[in-house]
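One record is kept unedited as follows:
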Amino acid sequence: MATAPKKPTPAHRRALLAALADDKGRVPESTNIRVQDAIWLAHWVTEVTNTGRAAAGARWAGYDGPTFLSVNSSGRRVLLTDAGHTALHGATPEGRLPENTPWPTAMALHRDGLIEFRDAVGTVHPSDGDDGVRGPQYAPYLTAIGRRLATGFPQAHRTPQTV
């Protein structure tokens, strides 16, 4: 019998991040079956129906249609270090990360597509603009995926004015 992983491998991270990018939080069907099994055993995903209803309860009520794996709060949490969790949950309503976010944390969040760097007028840049002399020129802001990771799916569709 397989054992559940305690930390996600790079393949597990890719599957969970891809699920965050999906509007319904679904793990892509093209994900390797061993990866799907591992993230399910670790309880980082929940099996759901087309409507998002828990598959176990739906089957009990007679449902025999297709089911999908959807990332859950445990799956969202395992993607972050403690510093990343603090940074994402400390973001302003506009999505700006706290001023004191450590550089390695910001770079890791950026690598995963959870934040982007913006200048004062909101233009997105590929990096923080640090040239090694002046320090970072652009501020880190949550992307839509970062907001989903921080707040969950129902809140992810809110605009910054309503958060």
Remarks:
- Residues 10-21 form the longest helix (12 residues).
